[in-house]
Amino acid sequence: MTTPLRIDREGLVDATRALVRLRSDDGEERACQEFVAELMRSAGLPTDVWEIDVEQVQAHPEASWEIDRADALGVVGSLEGTGDGPTLLLNGHVDVVPAGDMALWTHPPYQGVVEGGRIYGRGALDMKGPLMAGLFAIRAIAESGAHLKGTVRLMSVVAEEDGGLGTLATILRGYGGDGAIVMEPTELAIAPVQ
């Protein structure tokens, strides 16, 4: 028996604010990835966390990057289906561009201030908030007791802002699917591609 889907809005806001407080610019994404992995585990999702072999991924002909990283973590959480349906990938990144001149910020960039129904901070929109929205949506499906035919995988990746190394590493780890939603909020418009 399933129960209606219910998004834990307060938990979603709290998780997003906590993630915004963790700096993840200039290749320093590890603390964010560990935080996301813990949230996935606490939601009951089987979670794969691995050390990305940065040199190996950089040797791939499709690799692109701007920031040198000594290490990086890959994180994928899964809501497993019965195996009779397609696999959907949800992709979001934890890295952000540097905040720049702090004097230009209305709210401190690493506080996650809530005002007027919005969260302000570096990465709140691009894309720590969307990443948390994906996680909390999957959690709501799991908690409803719904049995999906297909599998939903949430890919929390690094290095999107400087080339996509984290997504490439995740694909090379074997995480593919029948479709993907990159939860990037560009222009708040759906941009279908194939």
Annotation, overall tally of beta strands: 7
Ranges where pLDDT stays below 50 over 5 or more residues in a row are none
Strand order of the largest sheet: 1-2-6-3-7
Largest sheet: 5 strands, mixed
Could you give the topology of this structure?
Blueprint: H1 9-21, H2 30-42, E1 47-51, H3 54-58, E2 73-79, E3 87-93, E4 113-115, E5 118-120, H4 124-144, E6 151-157, H5 165-172, E7 179-182
Helix pairs in contact: 1-4
Please, could you describe this protein's structure?
The structure is a single chain. This protein has 194 residues and is an alpha/beta fold. The protein contains five helices and seven strands. The strands form two sheets. Strands 1-2-6-3-7 form a five-stranded mixed sheet, with helices on both faces. A two-stranded antiparallel ribbon has the order 4-5. The longest helix is centred in the C-terminal third of the chain and has 21 residues, at 124-144.
Can you give keywords for this protein?
31% helix, 5-stranded mixed sheet, 7 strands, single chain, 194 residues, alpha/beta
